[in-house]
Amino acid sequence: MKISPFFFALVLACWSAGSAAQAQIYVTPKMGGGQVAADMVHIDLYYDDVANQFQAHIDTSFGTPELRALEPGQAFDPQANYAVLNGKAYNSQYGWNAGGFFTIPPGAAIWIEQTNCSPGLEIYQDWGRLGSYTPIFGTAGSSRLWKWSGVMVHNTYAVFNPTRHRFFADYHIYFGDANTGSRANFTHLGDTTVHLEWTTVPVEDPMTFKFGAVGSTSAAPLCFLNREQFVTNTEFVVNLRYTNAGPWATQFGCGIPMLAVAATATNGGPITNHAVLGSCLELQLTSLAGPPQASLGFWEAGDTQPRFSVLAGEVAGTNRFCLSESGGASGADPFGRISGRNFTVSQPGLYCLGFRLLDTSTNGVGGGPLHAPSANYYVYLQAGLTVASWSRQGPSMTASFGGEPGQTFYLERAPGLGLSNQWQTVAGPLAGTNRLQSLVDATATGSQGFYRLKAQSP
Questions:
Q1: What pLDDT, in 10s, does the model give residues 333-377?
Q2: Given 3-state DSSP classes, what are the helix, strand and coil percentages for the chain, each rounded to the nearest 5?
Q3: Are 277 and 257 in contact (CB under 8 A)?
Q4: Contact 398, 390 (CB under 8 A)
Q5: Span 309-320, pLDDT tens digits
Q6: For 101-234, where are the alpha helices, taking DSSP H only?
Q7: Strand ranges (DSSP E) for 99-254?
Q8: How many CB atoms lie within 10 A of CB 391?
Q9: 77/375: higher pLDDT
Q10: ∠ CA(326), CA(296), CA(11), 5° rounding?
């Protein structure tokens, strides 16, 4: 609609106001995570000199330990050594324990090596008020080898925002050189292994995109399972924030959690409409609409350059990335929840990203995929504070924009841009909702006016 001679300009203004800190109730750690009382679960290790074999027995009479977070409003004193557990579900019930008397060979020590564990699982050396909370078993870049003194000790296991129902860790226990951990001179002494498990209540990001399949039959199409929450006809908007440091400097970025739902109990499934075992889900970016000359980049965790870029105006894209963690191994769960990935765009504005799902496995008929590709889906991305569109109807002027939660929006008007002109709030306050939202000036009269959209943090 033609709106002249009423002229409009967009002036961006955004600031944050300080807010009072919420009172915290500081607590000390509990052995069973947030549980007031929890039973110790011993991992009894014993070396049988006659059988020449390490033996391990786990007391399962108390059930499987549960990783638990603190209750809302509680936190650990940030000055305490156990503050590392703030915001994490944790548990310290498993304790390494000598299950009998045995002699350690001269020059040797008992070594415990972590051989595998669930992604995101952290392990710390001790627990309790006096615990050292030193990272071990690969946590924070530590060695996966740990020399056990033979004295009972309860390691602390933790995970930030768990996304699975069950976690596990596998260990190799053996006699090795007391200084280096090498087993070269002690291979004649039998070793053993230990498998530990925990349950937990997953914490799901409400913005998680979930992917699976229409059905479990051969060639059933893949699908965006919770598309009704996020595709463009819902007016949902993914907000990307400006970054002024690091590899994304001067760009707008955001991580979009993506989940290929589990087909097996190991990964917290089976989830309804999971893809079949042996499939491998990948997401292909097929189109991008947005500001002229703008581009979108995809980054894996730790990248200093994007893996690929898509230019605004693309309508037949082929760039894709994997969602499943199995790599398409035959019979493997197509589950995937890969953290640390991010999208960036180069300019402020509203974007529309198109994508579809592909099964890139070779386990189907004739070495092809097990599932047919999905339909194309489209989602909005909002970079920075901009107005997506203006519309004028009679005396009303409407500004449409992507609203961000945690921000309050106002529409302001001034008769001119000079220093003597005063900005008047004509609409708002309006709380952001991750949706396309509108503010309406119902008194847009006169021959000329200038508008600005203002966002304020409470």
A1: 999 988 889 999 999 999 999 999 999 999 999 999 999 999 999
A2: 5, 45, 50
A3: no
A4: yes
A5: 999 999 999 999
A6: none
A7: 108-117, 122-124, 135-136, 145-148, 153-154, 156-160, 166-177, 192-200, 209-213, 222-224, 237-243, 251-254
A8: 13
A9: 375
A10: 140
Structure letter (DSSP) for residue 365: G
Answer for the pair 210, 281: CB distance below 8 angstroms, yes or no: no
The CA distance from 430 to 405, in Å, is 10
Q: Please name the residue that has the structure tokens 């059988």.
A: 51
CB within 8 Å of 258: residues ≥ 6 apart: 208, 209, 211, 283, 323, 336, 337, 338, 341
d(CA 158, CA 139): 10
* Cβ(34)–Cβ(71) below 8 Å: yes
- In percent, the amount of the chain with pLDDT more than 70 equals 93
Whether the model pTM is above 0.90: no
Q: Residue 447: CB partners within 8 Å, gap ≥ 6?
A: 5, 6
- Rounded to an integer, the average pLDDT of 47-56 is 92
Whether the CB-CB separation of 299 and 307 falls below 8 Å is answered with: yes
Rounded Cα–Cα distance for residues 267 and 154 (Å): 26
Q: Do residues 381 and 237 make contact, with C-beta atoms less than 8 angstroms apart?
A: yes
Rounded to an integer, the average pLDDT of 4-32 is 51
> Shortest CA distance to 126 belongs to which of 95, 162, 89?
95
Domain ranges of the chain: 10-17+386-457, 31-200, 209-383
